[in-house]
């Protein structure tokens, strides 16, 4: 019986192994690797998990809905980027940051750690990487660093980002009070805030840059983590991510005034980059428009409700596999036509184009060039995202994902807290979403903690923190970022970097959870 469980566990893990080996080991693009993972999941689900044609059809329909949700953001983020890039605004913003501080590590922290976290607070899935990646590349950072940095930097803010949708999913699925979950969730996420800042600088400049940047990381990190904690434990978790990112931006600007980080004036950047005809305020206009549009759309309840009245949604019946795994009846991923983050990005892109066009920043044929660049990056990325999401849904709906977590818990027993965050990370890796990770594994983690005599709130805090960390290594999000910096089809090296830091940070959170349990 035990040997059969091990065989089934290895089979359940095989689609993930295929994707990891092909993307990291063989440098395959997300589209090809995702297709291989999808085919592996399909075969395994049929022959080892009792999936039939009906279950697979529903799983793929759910996968397509989730993919549409993601691609709505991807395509509109690409449009916005190309609208801005066509004017030369990206280069102007880069020059402006260089004038604020010539410390490259602090430039990375301000954009890749702080600003990307703010965007996560107000917009959610994929937007931080899609928006910040091109900004960093425009400042002269390599394409790989430009994607890896915001992917890592924003991940601490995912749980309370986008109106705390992930945290509210955890509340809903476990039936627990938000105030009881907020303390340990915020403690673990607060620690993750510092770890993400450290990782951003270390991957860029190693130990030397990290040591010099430590004061900035401590100051900004304390402001963001402290704000998030205070708001969440007082019941205002829907504002925790957004406000933490906002005060983080203010703290970052103040840190640049510190003598250690102030612009030295000793380089020749101004000579190498002659004065742009566009002012920094004009260059930033698109991102100001984004904040102005997204903030009330997410935070002002009447407007949020009005924008989200029309939703694409499908209902699915209960399905039971040949081996008794039950998939509850319910709706697939709901897609708000006018209130979706992709819709908000489209409004921003439209207003930005009109704004820049009236100021004469476009040359003849600009619309054609914008759409051509968008199509070039978007098509290959879309194929990869669809295949990744659909194979993840096969695993979820056939019981493969649950079996993976069950095997881990059986193996570890009393030291389960050590891997409690890893379960959350696995869920986010598979689905690209901390919300989905909490939905899939929230109740499982609660039941495991109760049976093992562990603190439920500690385990669930580690779960949602792991799911937040998992955002940095989810292939679907890496595909989003790579599409905006010209790395479509070459996502493997980026995933290798984020995987390394994601595993390390997840392990640290797991170790802390174990220490809390023991003492």
Strand content bin: under 5%
Measured as a percent range, the helix fraction is over 70%
- Shape call: globular
Please write the string of helix (H) and strand (E) elements: HHHHHHHHHHHHHHEEEEEEHHHHHHHH
Look at the helices and sheets and give the structural class.
Answer: mainly alpha
Total individual domains: 1
* Low-pLDDT segments: 266-274
Q: Termini separation (Å)? A: 36 Å
Give the oligomer, counting copies of the same chain as homo and different chains as hetero.
single chain
Spatial sequence of strands, sheet with the most strands: 1-6
Radius of gyration: 22 Å
Number of helices, where a helix is a run of at least 4 consecutive DSSP H or I residues: 22
Number of β-strand runs:
6
* Main sheet properties: 2 strands, antiparallel
Mean pLDDT value: 88
Descriptive account of the structure:
- Helices cover 77% and strands 2% of the residues.
- With 519 residues, the chain is mainly α.
- The strands form three sheets. The chain has a two-stranded antiparallel sheet with strand order 1-6.
- Strand 3 (319-320) and strand 4 (326-327) form a beta hairpin.
- Helix 5 (104-122) packs antiparallel against helix 6 (127-138) and helix 5 packs across helix 7.
- It is globular.
- Mean pLDDT is 88; it is low at 266-274.
Topology (SSEs and partners):
Blueprint: H1 2-25, H2 30-48, H3 53-85, H4 89-100, H5 104-122, H6 127-138, H7 143-153, H8 161-174, H9 178-233, H10 237-255, H11 269-272, H12 280-283, H13 285-299, H14 301-307, E1 311-312, E2 315-316, E3 319-320, E4 326-327, E5 330-331, E6 335-336, H15 341-358, H16 366-398, H17 400-412, H18 417-431, H19 434-452, H20 456-470, H21 475-484, H22 492-518
Antiparallel strand pairs: 1-6, 2-5, 3-4
